[in-house]
Amino acid sequence: MEQRQVIRVFLASPSDLEDERRSAKKISEEVNSNLANMLGLHIDLVGWEETITGFGRPQALINRDLDQCELFFGMVWERWGTPPAVETEYQSGFEEEFHRAVNRRKSGENVEICLLLKDPRPEMLKDPGPQIQRVQRFRSELIEKKEIYFEQFAETSEFEEKFRRVIYKYVSQKIEAEQAVDGGNDEDAVVNSEADSDAEMSLGYLLPQEVETFFSSLISDSRLADGEDQISAEQIARIRLVASSMSKVGNDDHVIGAHDANLMFNQRFDVDLSRAEQRALLRSGLSSFGSENIPIWYWYERLEDSDHEPLSVNSVVATPEAARVGAIHALQVLGLNIDGGVFERDQIVDSWLRSKHADVVSAGLSYLSDFGGSDDVGLLVRHMAGSSGQQTAQYVDAKIRILARSNQSKAFDELLRLDPVRPSSAVIAALFDESASLSAKQLIDAFSLKADSVRLHAARELHHRGALNEELARRLASDSSADVRVIGVTSLEHQGVLADEREFRSLIVNKRKEGLLWLSSSGSDGESQYVEFRKLRLGKLEKSELLKLEGEADFLDDDLRFVAAEREFRVLGEQLRADIDDRFNGAAEEHLASIRKLGTEGQKLAEKWLGLIPDVVLKMLSRGCEVLARKDDSLDLPRIRGVLDAYDIKFNPDIVAYLGHHGQDEDVERILKLVENPGHGLGLLSRDFDGQARFGAATDAVIGIMSEASLIELVGRLPAKMTPFAISVFPKSRFLKISDAELLILLNLEFDEARKAVGLRMVRDCSKRTLRRVLSQLTKVGSTYYYNAVHWLDFGISLEQKMCRATARRLVKAKWTDFVSNP
């Protein structure tokens, strides 16, 4: 069974701090859940309610528990407590516990003391009774003696923040102290094994000298050994490595596994490996390159001098095929030019594209998409003729992106000729991010292509140029894509051809839904696009016209209601706040009353609407809070909190940003609740805040609230999928001050992407000396660690620093920081 080191924390307080005691218990469980497994630690929170019933006075049992604790955490508010049952010099159990902890510390015992004092309510100080008088005297004694450090707090949320900081800091300092005791060696000692001159067996005619030395030593040691199981795990790994390095055509393709490869990496300074063994280790790492669980960069750097460029060579000749795929991906990650030395560039590319293994072809096309040149186009054309399906699409993407790097117009002509169904976002960016060189004719010709994304970007560019006449606009207004239809209708409106709302809707929405189904998020084709189009139109109206329409609007016309409220907030803002406070019940009742006046049919319709009122109110509250959030008044914080706590509000970037700006520690949980409830269903905007962007926006808000928190505290609060974002944007100046002990904690987080983010941040920002020191501590004998942490530290140590930092910067940006507004 796994053994854990227990950190016993004694929680002392009178009885008027029950909320804080529950919060302390919750935070202790949070620490145990998030960090204890990886550290082998467990926080045991001990207090009077934890004492097991037994003989003797209860305080004696409490004191016995206290004497076993290493961290005393005391807190008082307005009560001092009651005297113990047995006569004593102390006026309360808290007082006895506090002085007992202080005396232990004075006698040299290893006990830390922390006090948090809650601010008394002003009305209690006007006529203080004996309890609060004793508390105030205790405060004065602390200030006068200056022996015990204490902090004050006003609210439970503030207590939670301070208690969490103390616990995390204590755990971090404890780990760091243990690391200092264990010691470390920053010097890399290299020990070369020498062959035994008296060895009875010589294998040199078959094996490299390094391998012969190993086997000779192994044979000699086994003859001297008493008993069984004398061969170490490292020696077994070496035997497997030798077998892997000697594989020939006709044998099974074989590479050693991650565990053996990491054992050999840890022995890299203590054993003398042959070139063949080093190549086998590199090949093993390349075979699982996507998993990042085998260190390869040390072996790569050792082989680079004499083996030309090892990645280029392995991309052609390595076995198994997974090693070729890994070599190509490694070239792409590093942004290296293909240079095999023994192979010309066209031979290397040709070997990729003519491979019978689809994964090799796909990896080659991915590399060429990013780094291919005009000289590679001929090979692409030749091999594309024999491709099909998804592979053909990859060929098309690669060719267009290569052409776009030198001639955007020529690349666009190729797009028109090939007419791909789903060009990648990278192709769209290459052609349209800087589209001034594209002619109007090319853009108009793109209206006939199959890809919605191409037609949409071509239409936007022509509309931006003011180059859409009525004929072209009507053509766009009848397009199969609703997004394209919106551009056509917008152009027709600007030209004065269309002005009627029903015409706008009939063109944008293909199949109009009738009745009560308007609340469905599945809506008809173009429904959400029409909603956004109408909002933009309403926002352009004159003030008097907008207010007139708002006054006449039906209750269900939420677009008009909230566009008017946001734009004319000085006039309509207080009514919006009142409606939110009333949960729109008054407005809903007024609407139902007006329906009932329509007679029998109205009564029936009102009955149907009664069942839909909760959904209507939920949508109204979400839209209303969104408007308040964009107005950014801190006084609305309690109002928005109330809605979030009472209703199932979907993720909304504006609300999240507002909480990040004005919120406090308690609002972190509200943000995390929103993150777990994606898609606010308000039209086009919801499509822009899925996945990475949602996590990035939420991380930005949490960091805004927890701006003073350590990185350990941040990752302790966040769900796993958000931790890489927090790690990637943590301020560099503070990241560089993180202790080795904390870095080791971060490198052992359970979520693999979080560990990768830590490794890449260290490569980007830390010195090689720091990387070496932390890697040595991470992989010390007997420790347990994750292999992908080693992969990235090895990367930063073994390769040229400038290239490593540039690569790490690019990877961190693409994966995480691009999705956070304030990286």
Descriptive notes:
By secondary structure, the chain is mainly alpha-helical. Helix content is 61%, strand content 4%. α1 (18-39) links the parallel β1 (5-12) and β2 (41-46). It is flat and about 95 Å long.
Offer a few descriptive terms.
823 residues; mainly alpha; 5-stranded parallel sheet; 5 strands; flat
Spatial order of the strands forming the largest sheet = 2-1-3-4-5
Number of helices: 44
Helix content: 55-70%
Quaternary status: single chain
Mean pLDDT: 85
Major sheet details:
5 strands, parallel
The structure class reads: mainly alpha
* Low-pLDDT segments, ≥5 res: 51-57, 183-205, 512-523, 680-688
Shape: flat
Count the E strands. Answer: 5
Report, as a whole number of angstroms, the end-to-end distance: 43 Å
**Content of β-strand:** under 5%
C-alpha Rg, in Å?
34 Å
Annotate the secondary structure layout.
Layout: E1 5-12, H1 18-39, E2 41-46, H2 58-67, E3 71-76, H3 93-106, E4 112-118, H4 122-126, H5 130-145, E5 150-153, H6 156-182, H7 209-224, H8 233-245, H9 258-266, H10 275-287, H11 297-304, H12 310-317, H13 321-334, H14 345-353, H15 358-371, H16 377-384, H17 389-406, H18 408-418, H19 425-432, H20 440-445, H21 452-465, H22 470-477, H23 482-494, H24 501-508, H25 527-539, H26 543-552, H27 558-567, H28 569-581, H29 585-596, H30 600-610, H31 613-631, H32 637-646, H33 653-662, H34 667-675, H35 684-687, H36 692-705, H37 711-717, H38 723-729, H39 732-735, H40 740-746, H41 752-765, H42 768-778, H43 787-798, H44 801-815
Parallel strand pairs: 1-2, 1-3, 3-4, 4-5
Helix pairs in contact: 1-6, 2-3, 6-40, 8-9, 8-10, 10-11, 10-13, 11-43, 12-13, 13-15, 15-17, 16-17, 17-18, 17-19, 21-23, 22-23, 25-27, 27-28, 27-31, 28-31, 29-30, 31-33, 33-36, 34-36, 38-41, 41-43, 41-44, 42-43
